[in-house]
Amino acid sequence: MRFAAGPDGVVTPDLGRKLPGRGLWTLADRSSVEAAVKKNLFARAAKAKLTAPADLADQIERLMRSRLLAALGLARKAGDLTFGFERVLAAIETGKAAWLVEASDGAADGRRKLVAAAERSSRRPRVLMEFTSDELGLALGGQNVIHVAFLAGRGADRWTSDVERLSAFRPLFLQE
Asked: How many CB atoms neighbour CB 140 within 10 A?
């Protein structure tokens, strides 16, 4: 994971790897970031006076969740998502879905049916239940969004990478 020194001397996470300046790197997991903060390794690596917030790992977790939701919104605009029970079920059954994203507060019955369809599929999608229906609705510009299929492709591959990075900071409900 890349970090950069902000103009105020504070360590800033650089999830997109685009901030200017020499990057400071750690392993992309909670324990590595917390150890770097505790031992003041960022200042040592930069050979400059830098301060890292004590809650840096929590900040990264929040930023990564926001990044995943924003990526869902962009994927919707690119036509890489479908949502609604019937359309998601069709995407799963035809093997087009790389991810089944279920609202964590959705009804268990609909989730059970889609997960069962995913398990029967020849191209079994991964399942994520990290976001609430309100968060999904806000990201996708809809109301009451419960079931989302992320269609296979480059966008899904990038999203998979970000989900895996977030899983190093917090336990996620993932189904392979």
From this structure: 19
Sheet of 11-13: strands edge to edge? 11-13, 2-5, 24-25
Where are any strands of DSSP class E within 9-146? 11-13, 24-25, 81-83, 97-102, 126-128
CA 136/CA 142 separation, integer angstroms: 8
One digit per residue, pLDDT tens: the chain, 176 residues? 999 998 899 999 999 999 998 899 999 999 999 999 999 999 999 999 999 999 999 999 999 999 999 999 999 999 999 999 999 999 999 999 999 999 999 999 999 999 999 999 989 999 999 999 999 999 999 888 999 999 999 999 999 999 999 999 988 865 54
